Amino acid sequence: MFISSAYAATGAASSDWTSFVPMVVIFVLFYFMLVRPQMKQAKEQREMIAALKVGDEVVTSSGILGKVTKVADSVISLEIATNIVISVQKPAIQAKLEKGTIKAL
């Protein structure tokens, strides 16, 4: 015959909990390498936005550089050029720049 007979394996069978160990290890690594750093970065972003004040220089997520002229609850007014002021939502602020960055450009 071309097909051989299948026989039961001899030896100790592994327990059910040991089959979950690799999955638990993957989830722990996933948490420490992806989720936790992302939560830390989001917290730093929220703190930076909450600490904005008039006169700060910022860049938006769309790449617009400007100086903060007014801070409201959910909107910030940015002066992007002389006498040109735009309003952007606070979450659109990407980063706070050092003083004088805009003048140097």
Order of helices and strands: HEEEEEH
* Unreliable residue stretches: none
The CATH top-level class label of the largest domain = Mainly Beta
What is the makeup of the main sheet?
5 strands, antiparallel
Distinct helical segment count: 2
CATH architecture of the largest domain: Roll
What's the total number of strands?
5
Radius of gyration using CA atoms only: 28 Å
Domain module count: 2
Share in β-strands: 25-35%
Please provide a written account of the structure.
The protein is α+β, with helices and mostly antiparallel strands. The protein has two domains: 16-51; 53-105, SH3 type barrels (Roll). 32% of the residues lie in helices and 28% in strands. The protein has two helices and five strands. The chain has helices spanning 21-50, 101-104; strands at 57-60, 65-71, 75-81, 84-89, 93-97. A five-stranded antiparallel sheet has the order 4-3-2-1-5, with helices on one face. It is rod-shaped and about 85 Å long. The protein starts with 20 loop residues before the first helix and ends with a helix.
Key descriptive features of the protein:
single chain; 105 residues; alpha+beta; SH3 type barrels; 2 domains; five-stranded antiparallel β-sheet; 5 strands; rod-shaped
Fold blueprint:
Layout: H1 21-50, E1 57-60, E2 65-71, E3 75-81, E4 84-89, E5 93-97, H2 101-104
Antiparallel strand pairs: 1-2, 1-5, 2-3, 3-4
Provide a brief overview of the structure:
The protein is an alpha+beta fold.
